[in-house]
Amino acid sequence: MNMSAITKGIAMGVAVGAVTYTVSNATKHQKKKMKSSTGKAIKAVGDMVQGISYMFH
Q1: Between 20 and 30 A from 26 (CA), which of 2, 9, 38, 54?
Q2: Helices 28-55 and 3-24: crossing angle, nearest 10°?
């Protein structure tokens, strides 16, 4: 069993769920602001997945 793939899947599932919840409950102003911070969020998730994968190596 490949633990790296499992941890990446879990992290991506958590990230997608958090984004979906945030977008569905946001006001128009908040949605406009989210567009500018999406790149930062994607980078943070990538760093988190990389950190988790290092823990299992």
Answers
A1: 9
A2: 170
Question: In the block, which residue shows the tokens 């943070």?
Answer: 44
**Cα–Cα dist 9/52, whole Å:** 11
Give residue-wise pLDDT tens across range 7-55: 888 888 988 888 888 878 878 777 777 777 887 888 888 888 888 888 8
Residue 30: both structure tokens together: 């908040």
Taking a C-beta distance cutoff of 8 angstroms, is the pair 40, 15 a contact? no
What one-letter code names the amino acid at 52?
I
48 class by beta-carbon count within 10 Å (0-12 exposed, 13-18 middle, 19+ buried): middle
Q: Which alpha helices (H) appear in 1-57, and where do they start and end? A: 3-24, 28-55
